[in-house]
Structure formats: structure tokens, C-alpha cells
Specification:
Elements lengths: L10 H11 L17 H19 L4 H9 L7 E4 L5 H6 L20 E6 L4 H19 L9 E4 L5 H9 L3 E7 L10 E7 L10 E7 L7 H18 L6 E3 L12 E3 L1
Parallel strand pairs: 1-3, 2-3, 2-4
Antiparallel strand pairs: 4-5, 5-6, 7-8
Helix pairs in contact: 5-7
């Protein structure tokens, strides 16, 4: 979307774009320098592109992240990896990211809720937000459900959680995973919830809460509140996915206060 000329910009026009930018992280009203973008905007775009590439390729510091997760107080994390043997293979072969290389260390727990914290397409997002989001999820769920110790997964896709959840033997699994970086946000985290996880589940069997990256995206407390409501609905309905709707921000709330069952 083209913006006004950089030189001779009318104050009212500049005020219009400045106000509109408060409601979006998209690049709008960038201005022009002749037939091109202003130098500042070109440099900012190049920096954002570099940040997005780094978010994809810089590996998760597993030891440091595991240290953060231990402090959440929900148990000693288990470390697993997918069958993708390198980052390049992970990016070229999504199917390998959905399969565990070895899950024998994952304990048979039988808890109500399990957590898999996965690097996904943005290890940066997991590093910045994973432990804090897990802390809020535990705060929302611990007084009502039994919680399995977390699993940290590298070179992981969402589908890997089906194998991990089945191995844990949990009723409901949350996958906290780094989302695909963009040129506005490189550190967005997503939550995928699957009730009764097992190999063969599809995206239609999951519920997703995305764009978690405070302060500009969804906050930890709000994301955990929605997730807790979805757990209630999944346990009442007996499944997750397309039949389970989040209505936590709607005008009419059901008995649980957050979900509508259809």
C-alpha cells in the first residue's frame, strides 16, 4: 500500500498514517523517494528479513531452555528430537519433523494434561516465550487437573505431539511451538491442543491459539485462559478440533464461561 511523498508531506496525512499504524504491525504509509521506498524503510525491511531468517535457523539452546522449564515446577523435562537430522532436512522434509527419532525416554504418565514445547519454525519464539507461557498454563490448570512433566522437542512439527502424547498417555496434549516468522513478527508462539492424542490425528482434530508474543501479540495470561476453557470443553465433548469452539470473547458464554459446544 503506497503512502504519501516523503518530502512535502501534509501534516494531516502524516497524522492519518501515524494513527493507523497504532492498530497494525503491517508496513503501511511508507512514503516514497522518487520511484522507490525511502532509505530508512529499505533498511528496516532488510533488518526484518534478517531477523526472520535468524528466527528459523538459529537453533534452540536446549540446555538453557530446559533450565528455564525446570523453574516452572512441573517436573523434569524430557528431551526428544524428530527424525529430521539437520535444520535443512527439517525445512525440506516436514514429514520427518512429525515423527520421533526415539521416544523411549518419554515416561508413561497417564496424567490429564501433557505439554510438548517445540522449536518449530521459530526457536527464537520458544526461547523468548515458552517458559513464561508454560508458567501461566500451569497456573490455570494445576488446581483442576494432573499435569505430566513437560517434553522439549527439537526439529519438531505439530504432528510430533501425537506420538509424544500417546507415549505420555495423557488425555489432552498442548503443543507450544514457534510459528512461521514474518517480516513484522519473528517470535510468535502458538498453542495446539489435541484431546486424546495418538498417531493419525489431523489438524481437524486440534484447536489452535496463535500470535502469542506480548506485548504486541496475545499475552500469556489471556492465551492460558482460552486454553483452560478449551480443556473444559474438550473433556465435556470428548474431543477437540472443529467441533469445539472458543467463545471466550463472545457476548454469550456457556456454563464454563469460555467455550460453546457444537
Amino acid at each position: 500500500m503506497s503512502g504519501p511523498e516523503t518530502s512535502g508531506e501534509v501534516p494531516a496525512v502524516r497524522e492519518f498514517w501515524d494513527e493507523l499504524r497504532k492498530s497494525t504491525q503491517a508496513r503501511i504509509g511508507l512514503g516514497r523517494a522518487g520511484n522507490a521506498l525511502p532509505t530508512r524503510q529499505v533498511l528496516e525491511l532488510a533488518a526484518a528479513h534478517a531477523a526472520a531468517r535468524d528466527a528459523v535457523h538459529v537453533p534452540l539452546d536446549v540446555e538453557q531452555f530446559a533450565h528455564q522449564v525446570r523453574h516452572v515446577g512441573v517436573g523434569e523435562p524430557t528431551i526428544v528430537t524428530s527424525r529430521a537430522t539437520s535444520r535443512d532436512e527439517y525445512l525440506r522434509r516436514p514429514d520427518l519433523g512429525r515423527l520421533p527419532a526415539d521416544a523411549t525416554d518419554v515416561p508413561d504418565n497417564g496424567a490429564d494434561i501433557g505439554f510438548m514445547l517445540a522449536d518449530g519454525l521459530s526457536p527464537t519464539a520458544l526461547t523468548r516465550h515458552g517458559a513464561a507461557l508454560l508458567t501461566e498454563l500451569v497456573a490455570q490448570l494445576a488446581d483442576r487437573y494432573t499435569l505430566a512433566p513437560p517434553v522439549i522437542a527439537t526439529q519438531a512439527r505439530v504432528g510430533l505431539g501425537d506420538h509424544i502424547g500417546a507415549r505420555l498417555r495423557v488425555r489432552t496434549l498442548f503443543v507450544l511451538i514457534g510459528e512461521r516468522p514474518g517480516l513484522s513478527v519473528a517470535d510468535s508462539l502458538g498453542i495446539y491442543m489435541t484431546h486424546m492424542p495418538r498417531p493419525g490425528r489431523t489438524d481437524a482434530d486440534r484447536n489452535c491459539i496463535s500470535n502469542i508474543h506480548p506485548p504486541d501479540g496475545l499475552g500469556y495470561v489471556e492465551a492460558a485462559r482460552v486454553a483452560a476453557g478449551l480443556v473444559v470443553g474438550a473433556h465435556e465433548l470428548g474431543r477437540s478440533g472443529v467441533d469445539l469452539k472458543d467463545t471466550s470473547r463472545g457476548p454469550a458464554l456457556g456454563a464454563t464461561g469460555v467455550v460453546e459446544l457444537r
